[in-house]
Amino acid sequence: MTVLHLADEGEAADLAAFLSRLLHYDRGAAVRLQAAGTALAVFGRPPSFEVLAVRAVRLAKPYERGLDVTLDMTVSAGEFLESVDEKAGTAVVPQAVTGPPWAGVLPPRGGWRPEPGLPAPDALRSLVAAAVAEFRSRTRDLPDERRTRAELDRIGRDIWSRTVGDTPLPVRAVHAAQSLGFLRPEVPPALFSSGAWLRLRTPYGSVAVRRAGLGALDVSVR
């Protein structure tokens, strides 16, 4: 059994909250864990948003298990959540599972460059609110014969694939960041790019998404 000692109760609570939000969108969600030194990265993919969500967690001491000084495995998000002890500041790594396809292709570790043009936090929240309102209005106005999954998906793609401000970031990435608790008013997010990837980063977590129209470039299969 591998026990992760988190930096404090707050880190444990934030990890549990992140896992709970992933499970809200997918009860069978899996997460990929990567730990080295005193940092743990938890990757998930909420299906409603088609993005990768990344939560960084601080560890109280460098990861090690026998001769292994790094951790890299895919596990059940539900089992991992059940193992989190917020008072003790610990989490037990469950048995590995066969990961979904996304877990084998992650954003690159380095080469990230700042991207200009991201609106202020208030404008981002207003943008998401307007997009949600538009989606509800357009779907509510559909006649019964057109209220199909294909039509709902088409409307969703039209709205959520729009870009944010003067950036190539799709609106769905900002919506995901807000829904996962990453987008908070006290700290503005920052946008970075590396090859085919964009990353919306906040102190509470990141959302990574592939640029539209680019092929399978600059990915990290780990």
Main attributes?
single chain, 222 residues, alpha+beta, 8-stranded antiparallel beta sheet, two-stranded antiparallel sheet, 5 helices, disordered C terminus
Could you explain how this protein is built, in words?
By secondary structure, this protein is an alpha+beta fold. 29% of the residues lie in helices and 24% in strands. It contains 5 helices and 10 strands, in the order E-H-E-E-E-E-H-E-E-H-H-H-E-E-E. It has helices at residues 9-25, 77-83, 121-140, 149-160, 171-179; strands at residues 2-5, 30-36, 39-44, 52-58, 70-76, 90-93, 113-114, 190-194, 197-202, 205-210. The strands form 2 sheets. An 8-stranded antiparallel beta sheet has the order 5-2-3-4-10-9-8-7. A two-stranded antiparallel ribbon has the order 1-6. It is globular.
Short overview:
With 222 residues, the protein is α+β, with helices and mostly antiparallel strands.
Question: Unreliable runs, pLDDT <50, ≥5 residues?
Answer: 213-222
Element pattern in H and E: EHEEEEHEEHHHEEE
Number of helices: 5
Query: DSSP strand (E) fraction?
Result: 15-25%
**Gyration radius, to the nearest Å?**
18 Å
Structural class: alpha+beta
* Overall 3D shape: globular
- Arrangement of strands in the largest sheet: 5-2-3-4-10-9-8-7
How many angstroms separate the termini?
Answer: 23 Å
Tally of extended strands?
A: 10
Rounded mean pLDDT score: 91
Give a short account of the largest sheet.
8 strands, antiparallel
Helix content: 25-40%
